[in-house]
Amino acid sequence: MRPFRYERATDADQAVALITAEPEAKFLGGGTNLVDLMRLGVAAPGTLIDVTGLAGQDRIEETAGGGLRIGAGVTNSDLAADVRVRDRYPVLSEAVLHGASGQLRNLATVGGNLLQRTRCAYFQDVTKPCNKRSPGSGCPAREGDHHNLAIIGHSRNCVATQPSDMSVALTALDATVHVRGPSGERAIPMPGFHRLPGDEPQRDTVLDPNELITTVELAPRARATRQRYRKVRERRSFAFALVSIAAVVEFEGQTATDVCIALGGVAHVPWRAITAEDELRGAEITEDAVRRAAEAELAQAEPLRDNGYKVELARNLIVRTLLELAEPGA
Amino acid sequence: MRGLEPVLAELRLRVNGVEHELTVDTRTSLLDLLREHLDLTGPKKGCDHGQCGACTILIDGRRANACLALAVAHDGAEITTVEGLALTGAGDGDGDSDGELHPLQQAFIEHDAFQCGYCTPGQRCSAVGMLAEFKQGWPSAVTPGNGRQIELTPAEIRERMSGNLCRCGAYANIVPAIAQASE
Q1: Alpha-carbon distances of B155 from A241, A288, B125, B140, B144, rounded to whole Å
Q2: Which positions ≥6 away from A21 have C-beta within 8 Å?
Q3: B148 CB-contact burial (10 Å; exposed 0-12 / middle 13-18 / buried 19+)
Q4: CATH for B8-84, among 3.30.720.10, 2.30.42.10, 3.10.20.30, 3.30.470.20?
Q5: Nearest Cβ partner of A106 from B63, B147, B161?
Q6: Taking the domain B103-182, which CATH number applies?
Q7: B-chain residues near A48 (CB < 8 A)
């Protein structure tokens, strides 16, 4: 591992000033992903700026309108256990609890979770080419081991997937990511924070290099909203998603008055299923209707040689999750 | 190019009740600090990537993977390793208690909850942290309903302990040992 300087920032302005002055610096949250990547040689910052102790970013607060503002330094454990989150945004608590392990969630932070790098094996192996790690070097995953990589929205340069469960729930909840940079603050909506790989797979998000995530804001939800996170993986616990779904649906009887669906494990971003949502908004939730909507969504999929199974898995997850939510008392 | 010379940092840690002032390379993980600098070899280096849980310790009472925690980022923390779980006994001040076993350690022995023993220190620290989380009412991915009424079923124990792998497959005895210690 390359030697690095360590700085502890005490507030967001100081953190931004430190990173702006040091081109080879990175922010450090819980370190559960970054320290691992440094050990693998994938990341080699000259300075780490610890942002786990920033003033005001270690708590979850009510917003004026009845939503929640989550500090970027809140740990995954504290987010998932928060009673307000469990009562009003259960899909978020469920998603976080479906990720990683108890001891990792105690270290990992909300800001770091949003910035998790892909678990593509070629990205993590510095002896292999990878356009995300080393732009222009090639993508061996396209012809190699890609059974757990993207089926939708990928490019010839990159077929990686975004691994964060939390981000899938935040995408279905239309969360807003608040960031601070050298020129001030801005708000980035989800979906829209993560980006598709295109010709720049080295960029996972729309964040500028010197911008710091400060909070994640959740808008108030109607009381009648039903929410669920489901995840399919290769073992029952402590594994990344093959496919996951966060569904947030408002019902009047059997009719879905509003539908938000995000899929994990299928793309370089948490994939918002806009086509399926449009088909289902205002419709009665029946097996036929949901299956048609799921198939319309997945008509855009371009599975690789060895991951066509994910198309079927995604379709079945959409159908099963929406039908469960439509059951009285769900 | 800056960054080729090791960078040293000073920090203070309280480990199993004993204060330490240390100067370490910023790259040092808590796991390497405990094992190489303090001779506390209970926490094991299994994968060194946060995937096996053999290095699990308690940082300020919460379980965490010592392999992914940079020591310098935990300046001032209170650390408990498996050597410190039995601090109810008369320790001789070396941070390695020679006293009575923690109820969880006793339960592991009674249930023969290990084979080779390599994962055991991590399993025990993880279980102690997990039981504290359970007592605070934290839900898990398998907690039904709104998570208000949680019973520590075998399914709950397995889910909450999934960050600790046992390649001997002693899970069948680890789960009842933890259940006993929770009573």
Answers
A1: 20, 34, 19, 10, 11
A2: none
A3: exposed
A4: 3.10.20.30
A5: B63
A6: 1.10.150.120
A7: 26, 70
Q: How far is CA A12 from CA A49, A213, B104, B125, in A?
A: 11, 9, 42, 34
Chain B residues with CB under 8 Å of A30 CB are 68
Q: Provide the mean pLDDT of chain A.
A: 97
Pairing of strands A68-71, A60-62: antiparallel
Domains of chain A with bracketed CATH: 1-51 (3.30.43.10), 225-326 (3.30.390.50)
pLDDT above 80: residue B179: yes
**What is the residue extent of each domain of chain B?**
8-84, 103-182
- List of chain A residues whose C-beta atoms are within 8 Å of the C-beta of residue B149: none
pTM: 0.96
Task: Name the residue type at position A53.
Answer: G
Output DSSP code: residue B34.
I
ipTM of the complex: 0.96
The answer to whether the Cβ–Cβ distance between B163 and A100 falls below 8 Å is: yes
User: How does residue B95 score in pLDDT terms, banded at 50, 70 and 90?
Assistant: low
A130 with A139: CB under 8 angstroms? yes
Tokens of A148: 């757990």
List pLDDT tens digits, range A284-317: 999 999 999 999 999 999 999 999 999 999 999 9
Give the pLDDT score at B99: 66
DSSP letters for B74-113 = GTT-EEE-GGGTTTTS---SSS---SPPPHHHHHHHHTT-
pLDDT at position A251 over 70:
yes
Is A81 close to B3, i.e. CB distance below 8 A?
no
Contact between A103 and B48 using a beta-carbon 8 Å cutoff: no
Nearest-Cα residue of chain B relative to residue A1: B27
Long-range contacts of B6-12 (CB under 8 A, 24+ apart): B6/A3, B7/A3, B7/A4, B7/A5, B7/A6, B9/A6, B9/B72, B11/B71, B11/B72, B11/B74, B11/B75, B11/B76, B12/B75, B12/B76
Q: Which of A56, A21, A42, A49 is nearest to A116 (CA)?
A: A42
Residue B100's pLDDT is 84
